[in-house]
Amino acid sequence: MTEAFRFLTAGESHGRMLGVIVEGVPAGLPLTAEDLATDLARRQRGYGRGARQQIEQDRADIVAGVRHGRTLGSPIQLLIPNRDWENWTTVMQVEPLSADEAATLVAAVDGGDKRSTPVTRVRPGHADLAGALKYGHEDVRNVLERASARETAARVAAGGIARAFLRELGIDVWSFTAEVGGIAIDPTNASRSREEADASPLRCPDPDAEAAMIARIDEAREGGDTVGGVFEVVATGVPIGLGSYVQWDRRLDAALAAAVMSINIVKGVELGMGFEQTRRFGSVVHDVIEGRGDAGRWIHRSNNAGGLTAGVSNGEPIIVRGAVKPISTLARPLPSADLLTGAAVKKAHYERSDISVVPAAGVVGEAMVLLTLARFVLEKIGGDSMDEAADSMTRWRERLGRAPRGDPAGVLAGAGRAGTDGDEIEGGTVGSGGDD
Ligand SMILES: Cc1cc2nc3c(=O)[nH]c(=O)nc-3n(C[C@H](O)[C@H](O)[C@H](O)COP(=O)(O)O)c2cc1C
Description:
The protein is α+β, with helices and mostly antiparallel strands. The protein has twelve helices and 17 strands. The strands form six sheets. Strands 8-7-9-15-10 form a five-stranded antiparallel beta sheet. Bound molecules: flavin mononucleotide. Flavin mononucleotide is lined by residues 50, 126-127, 147-149, 152, 263-265, 325, 327-329, 353-354, 357, 360-361, 364.
């Protein structure tokens, strides 16, 4: 059975193009390349990015799975050409090198051409050493071309399909930069609207914090250094009931954490209040439930749980934060070692690189959250076509809005089920010994 929104990417950073196949998308979803273009452009922006972004203008061509602007229910294939490829044709050539091509490449190396020269001075913090040893490569280019976050353009394109699908069902996902180099936004000063934040240099809702973040990135640039931060992804309109507590691999919280953690550069994931919960008493952490609201919504006084309890969505906005480490390719490289000789070298390899990528990583975070939510939505409501999925979602939301039918057998009727104020409800039983 096909897992909904399963996807696989392919492509090297300076190869001809990136590709992605997305399976399990319902039929009848309106989809054009334009739908994917906005997020691809958002991924390329952000103060602190390197020169590569001026070369590329990412656009995903839809080459399979869509006819006359609507999905067919068959696998969708997207291709994203790398404009920079034309500068790397021989270095990244797919076919074996002819004698002439090999001689040209050797001559380029002898002439000091950096692109053509095998990379052996492994970069601390990058995939170079572990990747080369794992796959038996003697030129680290064979590793870094795929480990490069250029691949995340393919994820963002795939995420655009999930965004189009979820939009039809009333679910929306966005992100913002919450922290750069230790400078965090002040939520009380987050005066920018979502559109304003999205258009700002760091996609940041707090203008004052953003100015300080920009200064921090400049400081890193001047020192030949790099700087990390935190992005926050927010999903709204998610109905209660996605995911499950009944089995570890059905938990939505775990799937979201894995999806965001899979982004090359993310070193930590928090849901809702995250680690901060460990420093506070339960009475100030747990979100008081005020009762059933309109349209199936249950009102929580706060959302410290980030919309997820016991691996199940609880109807509040889902909040996922990703910790972005500083980029590991430094303009002033760290000391390292040579892969082939094993000897220490003064400077690791350097090639054109970003200085800070928190806003871009946030867009990739959105894509991973979108793809994960799309999978869990279809697991919950099913649907081979968009009509079927939309009907099913409407029914589920209506179902949530209705009062429970009560205990069908009447066994517990009159036993204080409703409105009990006391301490006999499961989980809160006085004297219960542990593990709940
Ligand atoms: C949008 C984005 C852009 C990135 N740009 C660079 C870059 O220019 N230079 C670099 O060394 N790492 C860059 N990275 C991070 C590396 O891809 C990543 O650190 C590396 O693959 C090792 O994986 P790890 O950080 O998960 O250990 C970028 C990551 C993202 C998400």
